[in-house]
Amino acid sequence: MKLGDNVSAAWDTHLGAASADWSVSSVLDAPVVAGKTNAKNCRPVNGRVEVCDSKYGNNGWLGIAQVWVSGQHIAQGTVKLNDTYFNAGKYNTPAWRRFVVCQEVGHTFGLDHQDETFDNPNLGTCMDYTDDPDGTAKAQLGNLLPNAHDFEELAVIYGHADASGTALAAAGASSGAEIGSDDPSGWGREVRRSSDGRGSAYHRDLGRGQGIFTFVIWAR
Known about the structure:
alpha/beta, globular
């Protein structure tokens, strides 16, 4: 899967790190390639994950990953990073940027979270919710990159003969050509919410076995 680079200079280093970190996997490669979309719109492209940042507004979400699926296969995805929150305050740090982009890209490969309670000790993976992404505040592991369990899950997901795509590990299955929405009203049905309400997953049914899954990290 290729990562479409539609991000500003503030995100280039972190997207490059996410690309390198996920490409350690033995079953996928995630090179960064020149983007083809307007960052605000972040249009999906078949066979790619378009990664974009913009000031999407005070809409509550810090980052979202949207995954278009057809049957049991991922067709395309987008990652949107909300600079309204990242440009100021607690989220304006390298650790928060790297944690969020790593996690949202991971979702587009079919991975779910390893833990969904922000206050639990860090597991050392960006697929673990945390309020201490680099681990310095609580002298614990940093959640800035994938861990061995993530790579094991990817080996299971991608370890089949059908090279056209992958089963969605997180929540059932369903690729639409239409644009994913920045507004929760376009995300469909909420299928999961973390116990503290700071993370959600939605499914929008497009019919004929197609749909969009949206994974959300809410700002606090």
